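User: ok so my PI wants both of these folded by tonight, can you help

Assistant: No problem, let's get them done. Here's the first:
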Amino acid sequence: MGNEKDIQPVPTHDSVQAGETEDAVYDPKSSDDNFEIFKKTTDGVQFRLVGWPQATMIFLKTLFATGVLSIPTAMYGLGAVGGALSVVGWGFLNTCKRLCTLRFLRLTFIDFAIVQGDFRNRHAHCHSIADMAHVVGGPVLKEICGLLFIVAYVLCAGSGIIGLSAGLNALSDHAACTVWWAFLSAAVIIACASVRKFQNIGWLSWAGFVSVYVAVFIVVVGVTTTDRPAAAPQEGPYDLGYNVIAYPTFVVGMTATCTIFISSAGTSAFLPVIAEMRNPKDYNKAVYVSMAIVQASYLTFSLVVYKWCGKWVTNPSLGSAGDTLKKAAYGVGLIGLAVSGCLYLHVAAKYVFVRILRNSEHLQKNSLVHWGTWFSCTIGLGAIAFILAEAIPIFSFLIALTGSVCFAPIAIALPAYLWLYDHWEYRRGSIVKQAVWYTHWLLLAIGVFICVGGTYGVADQIKQAYDSGLIGGAFSCADNSNTHS
């Protein structure tokens, strides 16, 4: 499992020539079919069918639903200015390509999504972030990152189950116990995730993105037409809880930061998609288009909802405009919520699937072993996601916990070190290059801080929620979808 015995050596940081620029990112061997996980074949399963427009939509759908449903809640903790700066800042770190475009500098800068894509195309045998960790840190780091990757996307699949079950609960007027709706949601998500190729899921992503985007737009317009938030007291004076600048405690601030950070941190899910793209060099194009749309939408939608709802934003935020618009939004958005959970579960299952069958004839063969392994991965991980979703049933807490425990190491710390590994010559370069070099070490340290501090903050808030009765308990029939900030 995970044996790279047939892979040719790739250049290490010691062999990178000083002065190497971004134009030299793609090693000629990267496009050689022998270096790809999935081979082009005529007598087996052909995985490499994803074009860059489909990849763009997969990336959009992977990020959009989770962030836009949770960021308005985080705004209450940080205030409008702090929340907006956090959205822009994390989006910049996760996407930005260069600090400067002047030809004499040509410096790759803080660019987590692009760093991972460029590193993968330099080391084309890498299917996941765990494979990249193996290149820079050996088998121990590979297994640690692989575990974090699995936990991250299983938790994200759990958030998809919570979102979909909240929608079914709302549309049915709570006709059944929430646990049963969650079970049904898990079954739907597992079935969708069992679609074997990203190419086919790409078509689902188009419908899913439009579905969620329209649903969120309904809520954004709806909250601006009400006299007061639906979750607030409907008579008498009340505190809106809107602050331009907030002064949160460490626990509240870290939880809100982790929630916003994860909204654009799922870039490690992009890597398995590259392995199924017809032309991996189109990856950067897909990233820029998707992230531009996502960040603009995050900023505008979340600021409007927070401005009108303040601390009375619900979790998820689709319930913030009252029962009628809540049903309308969830009715329109059900497809998108299901596809979100489907993508997260598919990414996790595909990682395990490739780890098990890598370098086996069954990886691209329509055999009993192939199908049995695939369905075992989707059903097994989907069941775990369902259990975790019911254990931590408040949407924003589940999202924040995923950000601190899993995505801080694999979406900040590791990408920073990947850049250092492939640009080792910068440590002895010009002053500007050395500044960029040490900035990436700083980012690595930030990743560690977010992991430790964020986990402490989220765990403390979950404990407080249980103690105060905000969370009804694991596998409770209580509906937590209307819980406000």
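One down. Here's the second:
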Amino acid sequence: MKKTILFLLIMVFTLSTFFGATLTVGAKNFTEQYVLGNLATLLLEENGFNVVKRFGLSSFVVRQGLTTGQIDLYADYTGTAWVTYLDQEEVITDPDELLEKVRELDAENGIVWLDRINANNTYALAIRQEDYKKYGFETLSDLVGYWNEHPNEFRVGVDYEFYERPDGFFAFADHYGLDIPESQVSTMQIGLTYEAIANNKIDIAMVFATDPKILRYNLHVLEDDKNFWPYYHISFAIRKDVLDEYPEIEEILRPLTLYLNQDILIRLNYRIDVEGVEPEVVARDYLEGLGLID
């Protein structure tokens, strides 16, 4: 019996070594996250890991998965961590300083943040180009000043998470002194704000700075002149115990830090949202083009 158990243990160890360790990669429920999740998955698989993909999750679910050990790593945003996960209110205007402070605080949760990717997917509000020409709004302060004097003139659309999160719409309204009742804010599924503003169902849309739909729908993004939203630079967050066991993961994912930037990410997102290419295909084409996978 003891010999049988020992034989089985040896077989399990041998098979796991031969076939590679298994990692669970997470991703949130919007285009850019599917791109990043697939990029990480393909690089890890190329380097011998088996990957289980858990994509299409909300910020809160994927973060909880990381902290409870159900997810090993995923791409997140420094601003989201600082405000939403770590409950910080200080506004930090240096992206590297923000990353270091996130790293310091999240280390207490057993989470390591890798080097940041040079892309800032911050929240923003956008208006149609014809309204930009009509009103001349350049900044959010321009919009709010007029909006408070004409409270019934604009309709705004946001997704459900932005409606509720602590750095979302109503926190923005408080920061800028916008007096607006909840009844004037429409909620919709993520991404549908673009179609809504293009079809004149709303006048102001919540957008993401790296979303190619800004170009597709010819929108004008208003400057956050009072620095309400922190930087939302992208970094892979990974459980410390996983990185301790497989330190090579950092080097495997490093090409994403070296080669990805905001313009490239917008183009990758564009292939999915505008051209209809599947996220995994987009990710594979990009990595093959760099010679990082076969």
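The chain has two domains: 2-120+233-289, 123-221. The chain has a mean pLDDT of 91. Good luck tonight!
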